[in-house]
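Practice problem: predict the structure.
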Amino acid sequence: MLQQLISPAEFSPDLPALREPVIELLRKLAAEELMPRFKRVAIEKKHDGSVVTEADRAVEAALVKALPDIFDCPVLGEEMPEDAQKRLWREADWLWCVDPLDGTGNYTSGKRYFGISVALMYRRESVFGAVFDPNTHEAFHAWKGGGAFLNNKKIRATAAKPLVDAIVEVGRFKRLGRLRVALFANPPFKTISMSGASVLQWCHVACGRADVFLHAGEHAWDYAAGALILEEAGGRIATLLHDDFWRPEEGDKEWVKSVIAARHPALFDEWKRWVRGHI
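Answer:
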């Protein structure tokens, strides 16, 4: 049983205290629930056309049970009913936001590119985040104002490079409209990759394995941990329309955000100008 560390009423800025129990939990669930089912579970279609497996559900159920013992607040998970998700998103000051298995398509087809993501959010902005890759055993984490880490080693800022030399990660490119055409007809970058698990794409940009990121629209569980990790590693983030990534949006899709991101401020400015010039 993981010991409760803090409660919302007694919150302190000692966010590093969350690192050990959260990452311990992610490692445990990957070993016990995720990897034993790898390539062995059937895909089910959800009402929105996305896919889910019993592995997604088992990991999320375990997170819903365990995370309040670390920090006592509600858990918003990808596999919850949508009305419950929206209620928590709008009404809870504090919440855990979790993606039990990002990259389900990769997971079921045998591609070793998927991860588990957990973030603690206060009024819909992340203050702590962790992402675990069960294939490489890499644990990324960050807390607000404290930097970003890979296996407990601080991620150091990398030198800037021009956009023409950049590696770009892209998600849901089919929904990018005119921008999709420009990405392939006149690419301003060196290489494009569509790896299929955004929680890892965020982290790989943060540590310099890729340089820029573009996504047509992510739910909160897709970006909650990764966006914080990239920011704390020195990267910059925005949406297609707004420079303030964390600003609240209006309507039923208020938790869905498009993404423009880069690992260095100068590269971010160049990338953002190109993207917005081709929307």
